[in-house]
Write a structure and sequence with these properties.
The protein is built from 22 helices and seven strands. With about 550 residues, the chain is mainly alpha-helical. It has two domains: about 350 residues, no CATH class; about 160 residues, no CATH class. A seven-stranded mixed sheet has the order 1-2-4-3-5-7-6, sandwiched between helices. Strand 1 and strand 2 form a beta hairpin. Helix 1 packs antiparallel against helix 5, helix 9 runs antiparallel to helix 10 and helix 16 packs antiparallel against helix 17.
Length: about 550
């Protein structure tokens, strides 16, 4: 069998493994829904209705909600099938990211250098790249979360491949494709705007600089502007002022500013603040802290549907000590990620120790371009907040680029050494991930007959609400971890009031405390108060109604 045929079979095997693990992971979490996913689904509904003021968000980027809107309009699922359909879309995005990896690996293949020095073989790079992808896509981004991060992973890999082609002499058409792709990345997630700026600079570097580079940079910039400018104009129109959105400001406010420390997934008004908010939620009760969420912002949970509205008036304050603490948290987060990538990291160290790195003269421009595209976003996240799903794309690019810098002298012995090290560390990296994915899927399939599936909790709670007479469109109140609002999304109800999620749930089991809360919620028009996680015996004895066979409980308000 020829080397090309073996490589094709290896690629097919990698695809089959990746597809099987991806489908199993998505199927196991098909009923799950995270807070971001609820907001994206609500935005998709607004786009389908043509409700532009509600659909244009200063916080959430539009591309993912457009895809959701298209799929929901095409299929028209029932409420019960909605979450599985969304996860099916995520599988398609996962396959698109896998195809993007293939494009990147082929575009970044090392070229032989003078003196017989070359990089690792295509076989080693293929196995290495797919191992990095599996960890990034299934371990870091995951198919459990309903977010646009899989889109971002695909965009980063495609952009890396196009930059490699520009470094190898591709013309303005490739640069224009890169610019349009970066525009789509910005529409997928606002954080791609600085990445796009970096990629435009790297376009000039990849093209060799000088007069030869400018037509390519101009083509990329024009294509990016053509894709991104309409969305910037729409946000500016809704805001009544020029704006690039509120995503960066709010995340800095939430994650760096000391005065606003650790309010992520919280809401303004729930703690003291030294500034007035433009739209504070109305405090209904002090003990336990209870708020009405009244305002023009829509969505199932309005405080997470339109965070920019609820946080308007909270200023960003730069403080060196806060920034240093954020960087320290980022360093610790990267250390944890390094442990999750330990086999591959050790493999790189071993290869460089045994074989050394390629001489600087053997590098091409694209080696430096790939290193910059991988490392710079990691440094940027270090300043604000490091989360695995955010850095998956840069880590894959950086990992492939670093492997490409290993010096492989001519001769079969060196290639066998690289192959043995790569095979060993990839096995150690991928097998635990595969076992975990298969085990989780198998656990869900082998539960005792008749036992409710934990993952179907939102649907069971939604059907319990319907049995209580709560209808789509009805207002409800919530306590506990109300940001996990999948049940409200499926029931098509709107959370209009909340008991601060940091208040102990035991208060709601105490009759006098509960009476105060019920009286305070009366003006909101909420039909029921819903809470998850009450002790079963105490809740039933106190008059709470269990929502079907879920772990959610309801108290009738009117």
């Amino acid at each position: 069998m020829s080397g090309a045929a073996r490589l094709r079979r290896l690629r097919l095997a990698c695809w089959l493994v990746a597809c099987a693990l991806g489908v199993l992971a998505a199927y196991a979490s098909r009923h799950d829904m995270n807070p971001d996913g609820v907001s994206y689904l609500d935005l998709a509904d607004a786009w389908r209705r043509g409700d532009i003021p509600q659909a244009v968000s200063l916080y959430w980027s539009p591309l993912y909600s457009w895809l959701l809107a298209a799929v929901l309009a095409l299929v028209g699922p029932s409420a019960r099938a909605e979450f599985p359909l969304v996860h099916a879309l995520n599988v398609l995005l996962y396959l698109g990211a896998l195809a993007s990896l293939e494009f990147f690996l082929r575009s970044s293949a090392p070229r032989p250098a003078a003196g017989g020095e070359a990089g690792p073989s295509e076989t080693a790079r293929t196995v290495w790249g797919h191992a990095l992808f599996l960890v990034g896509a299934l371990g870091f981004v995951t198919l459990r979360q309903v977010t646009p991060d899989m889109l971002v992973l695909a965009v980063v890999l495609l952009a890396a491949g196009l930059l490699c082609r520009l470094a190898d002499g591709a013309g303005p058409a490739a640069a224009a494709a890169l610019g349009a792709l970066l525009g789509l990345g910005y529409l997928a997630k606002a954080v791609m705007l600085p990445v796009a700026a970096l990629a435009l600079v790297l376009t000039a570097v990849a093209a060799g600089g000088g007069r030869r580079a400018w037509p390519r940079v101009a083509a990329a910039l024009a294509a990016f502007a053509l894709v991104a400018t309409p969305w910037i104009a729409a946000m500016s129109s809704v805001a009544g002022r020029p704006t690039l959105g509120e995503n960066a400001r709010l995340n800095y406010l939430w994650l760096v500013d000391r005065e606003y420390h650790a309010p992520f997934l919280s809401y303004p008004g729930a703690r003291p603040a030294p500034w007035p908010l433009a739209h504070p939620p109305r405090r209904l009760l002090d003990a336990p802290a209870t708020f009405e969420l009244a305002g023009p912002a829509g969505g199932t949970l309005t405080i997470w549907y339109d965070p920019a509205y609820w946080h308007r008036g909270a200023p960003v304050r730069l403080d060196a000590a806060d920034q240093l603490r954020a960087v320290a948290r980022g360093v610790r987060a990267y250390a944890r990620l390094g442990l999750r990538l330990l086999p591959l990291a050790v493999g790189l160290v071993v290869l460089f120790a045994l074989l050394g790195g390629r001489r600087a003269g053997a590098w091409r421009r694209r080696e430096g371009v790939l290193l910059a595209l991988g490392a710079a976003p990691l440094a940027g996240y270090l300043l604000i907040h490091v989360e695995p799903r955010y850095v998956a794309g840069p880590l894959v690019v950086l990992g492939v680029a670093l492997l490409g810098l290993v010096r492989v002298p001519a001769g079969a012995e060196s290639r066998r050494l690289v192959g043995a090290v790569v095979a060993c560390v990839v096995t150690l990296q991928v097998v635990p991930l595969a076992v975990d994915t298969v085990y989780h899927w198998a656990w869900l399939q082998t539960r005792a007959a008749g036992a409710p599936a934990v993952a179907a909790e939102p649907w069971r709670a939604a059907t319990g609400l319907a049995a209580l007479g709560v209808r789509p469109g009805d207002p409800v109140a919530a306590a506990g971890d109300y940001f996990q609002a999948g049940w409200a999304r499926l029931a098509r109800v709107r959370i209009v009031a909340v008991v601060d999620r940091r208040e102990p749930l035991g208060c709601l089991l105490d009759a006098p405390c509960r009476a105060r809360v019920v009286a305070a919620l009366a003006p909101t028009g909420a039909r029921v108060l819903v809470v998850e996680g009450l002790p079963e015996a105490a809740a039933a004895a106190g008059g709470w109604v269990r929502l079907g066979d879920s772990t959610h409980w309801a108290w009738r308000l009117g």
